[in-house]
Amino acid sequence: xxxxxxxxxxxxxxxxxxxxxxxxxxxxxxxxxxxxxxxxxxxxxxxxxxxxxxxxxxxxxxxxxxxxxxxxxxxxxxxxxxxxxxxxxxxxxxxxxxxxxxxxxxxxxxxxxxxxxxxxxxxxxxxxxxxxxxxxxxxxxxxxx
Length: 145
Ligand SMILES: Cc1cc2nc3c(=O)[nH]c(=O)nc-3n(C[C@H](O)[C@H](O)[C@H](O)COP(=O)(O)O)c2cc1C
What we know:
binds flavin mononucleotide
């Protein structure tokens, strides 16, 4: 797959196959991530992968609680509502909730979790390119993310 196809077809996914991601594929994805541009090439990041179902099972209730908190924030109007199209915003929120609920339900089936830790990265300027490279590299490998 060339770069343009990856750029044009990479999407966020919450419904994914449970098939294991081979270690060499994980390594290629991470190798792309750490080539991303970052301030002063200081690489102030850590990546942590989890491909162990037992660990997923421990993390699942934490994820469920986090989603619950997000829904409470949404209900309390903490997120900005675009005034020009409140109906469209409500529809987006319904769709987001539906797909997030699916992920809560199927959390233990996610074959690979990738945690990205940014060190002293105010605003995310240094870490977001690495995350985007991760998503593109995953797309090239046929891995939804
Ligand atoms: C930059 C960005 C920010 C996002 N922020 C949120 C968010 O705050 N809450 C949320 O539940 N999903 C968030 N998402 C996830 C997407 O809304 C969602 O995964 C994507 O639209 C796929 O939805 P689907 O599973 O319904 O196809 C975000 C995605 C991106 C790319």
